[in-house]
Design goal:
The protein is an alpha/beta fold and about 375 residues long. The protein has two domains: about 230 residues, Aspartate Aminotransferase, domain 2, CATH 3.40.640; about 120 residues, Aspartate Aminotransferase, domain 1 (Alpha-Beta Complex), CATH 3.90.1150. It contains twelve helices and 14 strands. A seven-stranded mixed β-sheet has the order 1-9-8-5-4-2-3, sandwiched between helices. Helix 6 links the parallel strand 4 and strand 5. Helix 10 packs antiparallel against helix 12. The radius of gyration is 21 Å and the shape is globular. Keywords: Pyridoxal phosphate.
Length: about 375
């Protein structure tokens, strides 16, 4: 009987003795008056990395979006414009607040929001534009910022997948009224789970800080006295301990992601496909190396996924258009979103991935696309 090849995961975290030591310290000592020590340390490390004024660690990236939108007053009757190609976590907070997600088609080059489609979708009810940076790729932030300014809208950045990406010298997540990041176990930097809200707006920071702690305002002297109904979206000290160790390694973690992407790009050059773009003046953190096969190429995504599975390689499909899901209105006119979804695939990428693993994945892609 032939032994099964070693499993290649689509992604997994990089955990070293530093992460386990910090987590053990938090478990042993992070209680009572020390129960926020690693949280505050993590927030400071992340602020320093981004160059942002404020950061609030949260239970998830979705929670960070929810808090920020709630603090902006987004609610019933409002509309928020976002790209049709997205994970549902970006749209869910809009729905939970009683507002309406307005889905528009994406740009064929970046796979993110098409600025022209955004401007065409603006109505008197539009309150914000949600710029989701997909797989490390960046939205056209200058164009979106100009649109938001012209129409008096909030520009929000969902940078859950864009750690390490920069737009003309500024880090993703720092160009909108606020940014949100995710530290899920699949992300470049992980806390096991969790997220963070970042902003340079002092007043918005104070509102989110209050909302994140059951509506209790900073400086309130009365114990257990909330000033409003808030949320429980705080990150735990144990999670933050792992996050601190990862934040201290952030440049190393991003660099490894970039190395893996560049190796894939080398191996797959000459094939009828495109990979994550990196326009002039930008830097892509390459969270998830992705192939988009040319529209006129003979390609069967399910056949490639089956080949991966037979060789013990995890496959991961490109996000479905949100408008194809049962809870949203169908948008068949979003041609680019629907076309990308069926022609694209994420490739495995994790920090201790060996070159032989990258080559093994690439061989299957080459076999599908090179006669």
């Amino acid at each position: 009987m032939t032994a099964m090849a070693s499993r290649i995961y689509y992604t997994k975290p990089s955990i070293t003795p530093r992460e386990t030591a910090y987590a053990a310290d938090a478990a042993a000592n992070g209680w009572g008056e020390h129960c926020y020590d690693y949280i505050h340390r993590f927030e400071a490390l992340f602020r320093e990395h981004l160059g942002s004024r404020h950061a609030i660690a949260t239970a998830s990236g979705t929670g960070a979006l929810h808090l920020g939108m709630a603090a902006l007053g987004i609610g019933p009757g409002d509309e928020v414009i976002l790209a049709d190609i997205n994970w549902i976590a970006s749209a869910a907070p809009i729905v939970h607040l009683g507002a309406t997600p307005v889905l528009v088609d994406v740009d064929a080059f970046s796979w993110c929001l098409d600025p022209a489609a955004v401007e065409a979708a603006i109505t008197p009810r539009t309150k914000a534009i949600l710029a989701v940076h997909l797989y490390g790729n960046l939205c056209e932030l200058d164009a979106l910022y100009a649109i938001a300014q012209r129409h008096g809208l909030h520009l929000i950045e969902d940078a859950a997948e864009a750690l390490g990406s920069t737009w003309h010298g500024r880090r993703a997540g720092t160009l909108g009224v606020f940014g949100a990041f995710s530290f899920h176990g699949t992300k470049t930097l992980t806390a096991g789970e969790g997220g963070i809200f970042v902003t340079d707006d002092d007043a918005l920071y104070e509102r989110v800080l209050t909302l994140s702690n059951h509506g209790r305002a900073r400086g309130e002297t009365r114990q257990f006295w909330p000033e409003r109904i808030g949320y429980k979206y705080k990150m735990s000290n144990l999670q933050a301990a792992i996050g601190c160790a990862q934040a201290e390694r952030v440049e190393e973690l991003v660099a490894r992601k970039r190395d893996i992407f560049e190796r894939y790009a080398e191996l797959l050059s000459g094939l009828p496909l495109r990979m994550n773009p990196e326009p002039s003046g930008t830097r892509n953190g390459y969270w998830m190396p992705t192939i988009v096969v040319d529209d006129d190429a003979d390609f069967d995504r399910e056949k490639l996924l089956a080949a991966f599975k037979a060789d013990n390689i995890d496959g991961r499909v490109f996000f479905w258009p949100l408008s194809s899901l049962p809870m949203f209105t169908p948008r068949p006119q979003h041609r680019i979103s629907h076309s990308l979804s069926r022609r694209a695939l994420n490739l495995p990428s994790y920090h201790d991935m060996r070159d032989a693993d990258i080559v093994r994945v690439a061989r299957h892609v080459i076999a599908q696309l090179r006669p």
